[in-house]
Write a structure and sequence with these properties.
InterPro entries: Acyl_CoA_acyltransferase, Bact_Acetyltransf, GNAT_dom. By secondary structure, this protein is of the alpha+beta class. Helices cover about 35% and strands about 30% of the residues.
Length: about 170
């Protein structure tokens, strides 16, 4: 997948080198969505280990679906893309993430544009993601970028499905 410009570059996640960054980003995404990373880490603390195993498998299956966004040698964002587990013909965004200091600068559009290219190249005509309605910044971003709120998830009542048709 192409980079956006010289200062920004998408690179496949190197889990051996950057596993701590991945865990940090995912935990912060839980804080943004649910006010705490407790759900991520789980009561027994095994959540991070389980996440890294899951991410390793996802990277093996679709390396261009799990990428970091770099700016001048620093990782500033992360995307995790694949197919929706309930319908393999639908793409799924597991994570759009930007480090806090890079939010609100229009860089989220780069993540969404990458996802659009990815889903197009992999033959998906639409994609879904889940978001907490309390994460107002994320909801506003998704709606601005053409994601439509499909309503509350049955299996996770504190989140909503969003869908985008390409």
């Amino acid at each position: 997948m192409p980079s956006s410009d010289a200062a920004f570059e998408f690179k496949p996640i190197d889990l051996a080198k950057h596993h701590q960054v991945c865990v940090q980003f995912r935990a912060d995404a839980f804080v943004c969505s649910f006010g705490s990373a407790e759900r991520f880490y789980e009561p027994n603390g095994a959540g991070a280990v389980q996440y890294l195993r899951w991410l390793e498998q996802r990277i093996a299956e679709l390396p261009d679906g799990c990428v970091h966004l770099w700016k001048t040698g620093q990782i500033i964002g992360q995307i995790e893309l694949g197919c929706w587990k309930r319908d393999a013909s639908v793409g799924y965004v597991n994570l759009f993430y930007l480090a806090p200091e890079y939010r609100g600068q229009g860089l989220g559009a780069r993540l969404d544009e990458y996802a659009t290219q990815f889903f197009g190249q992999h033959g998906y005509g639409r994609a879904r993601l889940s978001a907490s309605p309390t994460n107002l910044a994320a909801i506003a971003f998704y709606q601005k970028r053409g994601w439509v709120d499909l309503g509350q998830r049955r299996d996770m009542p504190d989140t909503h499905y969003f869908e985008k048709v390409y």
